Amino acid sequence: MAVDIIVIGCGVAGLSCARLLQEQGHRVRIWAATQSPRTTSDVAAAFWYPYRVYPEERVARWARDSFAAFARIKDVDAGVLTRSAIELLHEPAERSWSAALPGARPARADELPEGFAHGQVFDSYVIETPRYLPWLRRRFLEAEGTIEVRALAGLAEATDHAEVVFHCAGLGARELAGDGSMLPVRGQLVRVRNPGIDRVIIDEHSGGAITYVVPRSEDVILGGTTDEGEELLDSDRAATEAIVARCLALEPRLRDAPILGTQVGLRPCRPEVRVEREMHGDTPVIHNYGHGGAGITLSWGCAVEAVGLLRA
Ligand SMILES: Cc1cc2nc3c(=O)[nH]c(=O)nc-3n(C[C@H](O)[C@H](O)[C@H](O)COP(=O)(O)OP(=O)(O)OC[C@H]3O[C@@H](n4cnc5c(N)ncnc54)[C@H](O)[C@@H]3O)c2cc1C
């Protein structure tokens, strides 16, 4: 039976839920304070990699489901690129999400930058958000979805107007759901011209911030910072220089790549991702937020589980 649904939020979480709900025949409206290109989802480096997100077992399942969904979408128009990735390690490590990945194997010594004794190579996806989010949005609108720009002060503003509400407000859940467990973790990225690189490099294990090199079709995203509790959206010049230096140490071909810009966003971190159904009076609210540094990686897996709660 078709249900009249409001999805709060037009980032990757809201758009993915909205599309799945439409595919099941429901009438869907999105209400959101901002939309692409002004969401955290637009800022993401957006490679498939579970980072700063919990609980591990559910995350592994959501990530695998999303991986399979990106494999089905894989299309340059949608901005979904296949990329080999190498995760650099100081000790051999077992990751719950990596074993079954295509192309997964230990890195060869000649693939490792100086200072690293181990690494794992796997096939991954890079999602070019400047293409992907407009592509998702377009598909939603073409299927008779509507998007209304409005900033809500509380969930009740939506529950009064729909049979079911999906709550996908990212960090906005702090105010909308009064969720004091949300923690903004600021991230800064640097965008440089792509000098011909096509492998993602990740170093999460050298202490301090995560370092990554994420090649897209025209540019490369260099990261990053992980500033817990910080909410300043201006970029910081010292951080830019530090990011470029760390990435250059991993990928010398970046040496002459001109800087195209910087971008800053707040990861919507939470002790655990919240995919849960809750009654607000007579109206079910289905929460889907708190995806930390992996909202793109988990987007389809979490959407499938959240939409499944409609039948509960
Ligand atoms: C620097 C950085 C790098 C990242 N890199 C990666 C990566 O490589 N891979 C990966 O998987 N993830 C990455 N992430 C994480 C990812 O960006 C987030 O987890 C994801 O974008 C969260 O999506 P969302 O839809 O929940 O939130 P958002 O994209 O923030 O969307 C929230 C939506 O809710 C709306 N909203 C909020 N409050 C209200 C309100 N009161 N009323 C109405 N609407 C409201 C907003 O306007 C917006 O439309 C990165 C994040 C950062 C900051």
Helix-strand blueprint:
Blueprint: E1 4-8, H1 12-23, E2 27-32, H2 40-43, H3 56-73, E3 80-89, E4 105-106, E5 118-127, H4 129-142, E6 146-149, H5 156-159, E7 164-167, H6 173-176, E8 183-193, E9 199-203, E10 211-215, E11 219-223, E12 227-228, H7 237-250, E13 259-269, E14 274-280, E15 283-289, H8 299-308
Parallel strand pairs: 1-2, 1-7, 2-6, 3-9, 7-15
Antiparallel strand pairs: 3-5, 4-5, 8-11, 8-12, 8-13, 9-10, 10-11, 14-15
Helix pairs in contact: 1-4, 1-8, 3-8
The chain binds flavin-adenine dinucleotide.
List keywords for this structure.
312 residues, alpha/beta, Rossmann fold, nine-stranded mixed sheet, six-stranded mixed sheet, 26% helix, 30% strand, binds flavin-adenine dinucleotide
Describe this structure in words.
The protein has about 300 residues and is of the alpha/beta class. It has a single domain, classed as Rossmann fold. The protein is about 25% helix and about 30% strand. The protein has helices at about 10-25, 40-45, 55-75, 130-140, 155-160, 175, 235-250, 300-310; strands at about 5-10, 25-30, 80-90, 105, 120-125, 145-150, 165, 185-195, 200-205, 210-215, 220-225, 225-230, 260-270, 275-280, 285-290. Helix 1 crosses helix 8 (about 300-310) and helix 3 packs across helix 8 (about 300-310). The mean pLDDT is about 95. The site of flavin-adenine dinucleotide has 43 residues, from helix 1, strand 2, helix 2, strand 8 and strand 13.
